[in-house]
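Intended use. Records such as the Chemotaxis protein histidine kinase CheA entry shown here are meant for training and evaluating sequence-to-structure methods. They are not intended to support clinical decisions.
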Amino acid sequence: MLSPRLRLLALALASLLGPVNGLADDYPEANLPVDPDVQALKQLEQSLTQGQMSQAESQLNALKQRLAGDTRLEQAQRQLSDGYLKQGEQAARQGDLAAAQQAAQQAQRLLPNNPKTAALQQSIEQAKAKQAAQLAAERQAAEQKAIAARAEQARQQQLAAQRQAAAKAAAKPQAQLIDPKASQTQIALPMLDTQDRDALRALMDKAAADVVTFRCAVQVQVRQAKDYPFVAALLSARVKKLDPAFKLQISQQLAAEQEPSLQLSPQPKS
């Protein structure tokens, strides 16, 4: 027989353990095992919610082997197809048409009769056509730019050639009356016979330029001796104006029967 003290201790322990021992009676489902198929379906739903399409498809294929004909899998397959379509629509908006096309094919494979797939395919084709048109326009613009650049380059080359030719022409002495390659050039002076002083002065301007440029010796052929000083003075004044340091070599020749003329003979440079 228990002593009063031990009896009180036993009652205290019974009062403490009573609720614990009654837990299974109050919550019988707490001791039930978890259904692996239900757990797998929850994991599939979680993958679909998080947009993990590849993982969700693998989980769906595994469940099809275990739960063939389960209507819950049909709904999951529809959700998976819609998930691929959402990925495709997003990729199309971002301009990644290859990824959009791949996602559309995945959705079509999972649910061939999904009308949303046809709409996505149509938007992809429209985007492709728009990209092709834009690419063609950019290519045409680039070609036109290249053509314009080549034309401008050709124009610049032509201008450069013209400038070079002009520079060469400017550097090369230009003859007014004589042939620089000939040993001498005979220039007629009919204005002495006609007393055309203006024409004679104009001719002397050109003759003086050749005399200075090509270092010419001059012989004046006249009908009368009185004509020589006048012609010589006109020519000397013009030569001196062009080159004050130039030493004019000038002589006369009388030929009453011949037309007056100038004979200019280029001299080699000393």
